[in-house]
Amino acid sequence: MKTLFELKKYAKLNKIPIIRPQSQKILRDLCLQKRPHKILEIGTAIGFSGAVMLSACPKAKLLTIEKDENLVQIAKQTFQDRKIEKKVEIFCDDAFEVLNDLRKDKSKFDFIFLDGPKGQYFKYLPILKDLLNKNGCLLADDIFFHGYVLKEGDPGHKHRTIVASLRAFISDLDNDKNFKTQFLKVEDGLLVCDKLN
Question: Shortest CA distance to 8 belongs to which of 53, 17, 70, 190?
Fold first, then answer.
């Protein structure tokens, strides 16, 4: 599957969630604007968004994390088919463990794309702040979680923990003076955050 169209078709047929069209355009535009050298992605899936970022930034290196072994195999094939596998390092592991190891190693990234489990965004946040270079950019996808984050009242037992985590994530960044944060009401919500200090 060399083309993004083929990848998108495969994802739809197999019910694998990938970044939505308008969000994809924003991701690509941000990569073109920021020109990151080192990119971190949480949530590889089939490698679609990774391919989008590397097509916009052909000189960049991508480190991407995915827990599902089957998806990792598909993503590896995606990167090989597009002849960009040498620019990609994939970790098949729990993201929190990998992020902790990256922080211990004092790794730094110019761009972070957060599209993993929504209930973990707030848990990851202190580490992501440390991993992001000054003037780096964090893009978080699906921050409105099917609109529940924007609705008043109790979202119900099934979604309560995820919604609370996302609200805490949004509030923390919105109130952190070291970051400039924008909320985009595009599809299921995007958060664009630039590190100032």
Answer: 17
